[in-house]
Queue: 4 jobs
Job 1
Amino acid sequence: MSRDKRRHPILKSLGLIFLAFLLYFTGKALLWGRWSAQSRTPLPRVELSAEEAFADGILTPEEIAVHYAPEVHAAVNVLISASGKGDFISAVDFDGDWAADNNWEYMASFPLKATVYWSVQETDTHYFVGYCFYHPRDDAEIWLDKHENDFEGIMLCVPRAENAFLPPVCMYTQGHGGVPFYGDGLTAEAGSRLAGGLALDGDRPVIYITPNGTLSHAGHSIESAAGHSLYWSVGDSGIRYYYGGEAQVPLTFKGAYTDNPCSYALEPLSTLWNRRGGPYGPGQTFGEYAAFNGDNYEKNAANPAWGWRNKTEFGYRGSFLSDPAWTFSRAIRELSLSPAYTLNPYADWRLTVTAVSAPEGAEIASLRLLQDGWTLSSPAWWHLTPEGEGRWTVEIAGEARQTLWIAAPAESVWKVEAIDTAENAVNGAEVEWEAVYLD
């Protein structure tokens, strides 16, 4: 009995400490998001109809980006990252400079004006419309999940029509290397994941951005708002970003998304793409070709869109920006996409492989593509059709395609070689191929 009495003050003290922490975090959850007493009349959403866009007979990439500009439901975790500010979207140069290695430190000191980066590519059958979202911090409760800068996004697959806009038929989203596809009535090819249907408001996708945090559905990964995952959103906090043509700072993020509207501005992805060649290092935007310059917790941990990679045998770094026609056609069975780009400003290289020949009796099972000595392809990429006399024509994945559009540095060294079933290079085999730098 006396031993229990000696413990009682210790237990009481621990209880008081626990209660203090509980009150502190509960208070933050209840109060943060009400930090501003300001109010403003929401800007109207910018609409661009087909009649307006096609009136002059010329449809520009920017008009396409405006028409499909998404509605964004961004969750906010108020317990970390300047009481939730780390979940605001912004421009990379929000602090007035292009140094990305001071953005973690400056995030709390500058207004984070909502900015969305857009891209448009075209084939003769489809538009591919991308939107990217930047956060100064990928933050979490534990240091292993933290790093400076964060860049995630979506890509829409939209059928082309004469003098009309059609709704997207498919979308993929990006978050930490996981790339789910969304669409109705579609079937995923082996190695790809169809995560659900599209949520649309007219022709605009409605998407959900997860908040900073440690759980699986966190870290600003993006999902369709149709049945998106649940996340413990502290204080029921969120922002509804929409395209109003002006980059605003959220006034509040307490309560339902619909109660917290905030207009964003559109900025062409070329603003960042044009800086990909460096200079690199301290005080610069990029630490290397496909990584933002960052020095908090993990060095150069965040990738721009030309550094994203789908973790399947048909994905390669940058293909989700540089070659969206390949990406969609390899992932979704029902999409009939032309590989012939009429506009693609986000590829550095055009690599074409047409045929392979070998000495009599040589075994040719597939090909191998190498960049700077590293294998970029898998054997499943290549479909070889024998023509006789030791010669085969080549198609990429059997899709009447012989060209890849690749994002890679100008100094990249390419090699294409024939391999046997053991994936050994075949002596004496010659591959007919060409790599052209486009810039």
Job 2
Amino acid sequence: MSTKLNRRQTLQSTSCGFGYLALQAMCAGRAMGAVDDLSAALPAIAPRARRVIFLCMSGGPAHLDTFDYKPQVGKKKHPGSVFPFQQHGESGLWVSDLLPETAKHVDDLCVINGMHADTGIHAQSFLQLHTGERLRTRPSLGAWVTYGLGTENENLPGFISLNTSKSSVYSSAFLPSIHNGTPIGVNGEDMSAATIANITSDHATLSTKRKQLDFVQMMNRQHAADRRGDDRLESVIESMELGFRMQSSAPELLDIRNETENTLQRYRVGTQEKQVGTCKVTDFGRQCLLARRFAEAGVRFIEVNHGSWDQHKNHRRDLTANCEATDAPVAALLQDLKDRGMLDETLVIWGGEFGRPGLTPEDGKNETGHNARGFTFWLAGGGTKAGYRHGATDETGARAVEGKVHFRDLHATILHALGLPANELTYWHEGRHHRLTGPDGGKIIHQLFV
């Protein structure tokens, strides 16, 4: 009976197979500092930050009514800002009156007004923001960061996603599964009841659970010994060990009852939120407080989610509600990081998948669309320039015209801030190297740093 060989099998079985093996060996290498487990790794280059907190504003925040002031110029009314702005701090940066608490920290912000992306389709741009890809499943930013650096607490995940929406945005995809983000809560869930699934139970004592796990892991390791080189099996083994260790650390961090009443009030935890338009009740302040606690505990990448900023039909009402829900908690987080001496080593990121076209004042319209050609992100801490504005959109905010920053450039800049080689952190999968910044690579925006 004849056996048909595919192209790769034929190549491996002939004399050219030696060349194939040599090529495979060369391609198997990964960037310096990359890890297959969560043990902390030394950055490949001098880092500015040790961790990331990503404040993800899902749905497309209206940049012209938050951080990109476009007053009326000329004789004819044009699309621009419809809410008042004021200059704040020593830097004099413009911030909307909708964000009075965040405005108090303007001298800590590095505002990027020249962001742009490839598409105005929510799902695709949101995926590109998180993974660098618009259509295909790829590892998320947080997974790449823990792949490069691990975590600083062996009893906690390296990557946590709070009030998450879709698994694709915290997936490790083809990276070892130990780098998968750990979700806490789902979109719109009461965050006071959210927890990490499958780490709490009272069916047995901790010592008994340890014996049970040891027995299962013995079989797992025997199974893995027959399949050497299968990173997926090793990741499962490591994930089960991490899950056991998390039973003692994670519940304590999720329990915020030891925080002072003043702290809870600053973060607006427990405030009776009302759902207004598209502004969903998510207890955003609790997420920000948990982000601070996880950052203190050594978690490498924490994503905080608020949705939805997809205000089409009632721009003024819904934008006001979203800003009211997020303003004070973001300010409290920045203040706590600063007071604890953590802001310098924590890169805080704020933004969404794109922006929105401006409204024309006094024309009676209150409906906006999508704008991926120009919008705003801001950074704080992590060695970024404080009280600094980078880039600009045109006079109507329609497109970025100066200091343009694409998502892949933002990704490269984030990796660089953490001490990772932006375009060299790669993983071999399905016959080629993959990286967060994609085939074209990303440009590090050095002007954003001190």
Job 3
Amino acid sequence: MTRRTPTIDRSRIRTQPARRRASKVKTLDEARPLAPGSGVADLLESLPRLLGAADLNAAIDAWVRAWQRDKLVLFGFGAHLIKVGLAPIVVDLLERGAIGGLMMNGAGCVHDLELAMMGRTSEDVASSLDEGRFGMARETAERLNGAIALGRDDELGMGAAIGRDIFESDDRFVSRSVLATAWRLDVPVTVHAAIGTDIHHMHPSADGAAIGETSFRDFEKLASLVAGLSEGVFLNVGSAVILPEVFLKALALARNLGHPVKRLTTVNCDFIRHYRPQVNVVERPTRLGGRGISLVGQHEVLIPLMAAGVIERYMVASSKPVRRRQKATIGKKKAAGRRRPGSPKS
């Protein structure tokens, strides 16, 4: 700009009445103070009808609609969900019938097993790595690798194989295990392993062929689940790469085989927005109809809030209490999944 450039003449601007202008925010959309003693439903209704709060309520509504109409709710999650203490929330949702299928990565199995087996998990990676001890827990590796090998022999997927092992064990905390609960309730659970990503892969008991075969069975099972996802809901909680990639391939396979999979709602929940979940979960799968939602927040806050909202709204919409799934008796379920004579206990 030179010294001779004139300043802009603001006296010539064209104005318009403020009341005729389109506005994105209205007083009706503002938050309302929450009265002491209010419940979860009141809290959710008190949130502003804007941005993340509106998306949270939209995700809850979509989940409730799918549950009411017996449409699939496919709940995918990374290991962090287990590590931050949310397994009991998922178990409760499974028992209420709010989740029709589970999708997880291999690390989730490690933490689910350890919490069931000894009530604690998650080692200090940095110090253990320095000392050459990271991932060298003997019982964890033997249990997981044994269950996977036996599952391969019994033509099970990895999720069912590990769930069966935990359910049939004498572990003290079996009731809080997501995998054992899925096995008990006959809820399909698929585990998608990447060789070398999980601690039990390092141990001599690991059988690469068994890991690959059982996880591949789970991929085929997942594709069958995704084929029936029209008007349903898919949630990806905390997986930045593996589950978004696997879900997209399962969707591509289902559509190639003639299943349109339209009008679905996808929800990605994580601390930050990553590229693959944004495109492979939120954007691309919903191009044929439906809606993709991205919720940013800490799992230990966001997931319990969402679960409580889903349960309350379902109860209100159904005008009846949420019934628990019929639990299989331990004897009956164990008989159905009993190891073949002579098979070693994993």
Job 4
Amino acid sequence: MKRLISVLMLCFAICNNSQAAQWVKLSDNNVEKIMLDKQSILQQDKYKRAWVKVEYKTPQRNPETIDKQYNLSKLLWYFDCTAQKTATSQVFQYLNSELIYSAGIDSKNAEFIEPVPETDMDIAMRYVCQAQKPTIAPTVSKPVSAKTNIDTQKTTEIKPEVPAQAVAVKSTETKAVSVNAKSAPIKVTETKKVGPTPRWTYEGKEGPENWAKLSPEYTICEAGRNQSPINIEGSIHAAIKALRVIQKFPAKDIFNNGHTVQVNFKEGNMLALDSGAFQLKQVQFHAPSENTIQGKSFPLEAHFMHADSKGNLAVIGVMFTEGKSNPALAKLWEQLPDTEGLPVILKNRVMPNDFMPQDKGYFRFSGSLTTPPCSEGVRWLLMKNPITASKEQIDAFKKAVHHSNNRPVQALNGRVIIQ
């Protein structure tokens, strides 16, 4: 409770110019009551957004937390009134005021869908899209200076008016979603924010312990209940399927983004998971490892980022121990960038399966991105068996990044790890 109060206070400080919520009832039947905060309706470019809460008459189950129930959802929805489509940016779920589940997606990457008629999203969309725009008082003709013209074109950044636990699923009748990692995501808005993107680092005032304070979009880094990385312990043996991957297409380019070294792959490498297909997008490296196993840290960890057609994410994590030189890393490190810059086309052919251990046993758990905005709902598959990299290869990566780039281990909060 103390943590919730502190988060609320933080949100109030960030959103100090917002007005008190004014909840209006949109629908009330024997299944659910749908309410919308009129004060949260905002227009940005051609999109509108609003906070909605859904109170359920009987407890519901989220596929991501099948062992837990909830009876209240709060969601931030965006509306394309012209196309009659909606997108979910944030949602959080409660059971009797206790936060049960949180996941997150950057609003700029949210996927717009046509809501099913008479569902909660459809009802909210009809209310928001039919709402009257604020009346603009007539202006007195005056000579307009160049400065005035510039100022009137500025767009105020959207700020949430609800607790910082705001998280994301597509809708209350569908599965939770995570960050949309498609190459050309739908933009919620094309208007530019006033001021630069919040800077974050791995140390100091902008380090992991302060990420949530840097931007309203990062609040889930502190308020989330399913954050990554974690320490693997107390896992449960279950009949999970063997890892099913197609890894026949090589890496495309490599670059240093200031936080890590990232390698992008050509299209075609796939991960089959939960009756869906996830395409390999990129691999990022962290030293020392972010996840730990039985409290043990590794000198290097690789995260293979996958996304399905809806933007749901799955990550395969591979640990490195210090030992023999790694042939795949040797090829990549020939073009290892030691400064931040644009992607460079790789000269050598490097395949994703070059980084996979022969024994493909893995731990599975639900987690998040390990960097801001720390979006949740990410499927994690952490390989049990490490592969090797030489001390020289590990040191070369550290020198290129110029700092450790591992987020500290996060609390499990009741999550189950299976193997």
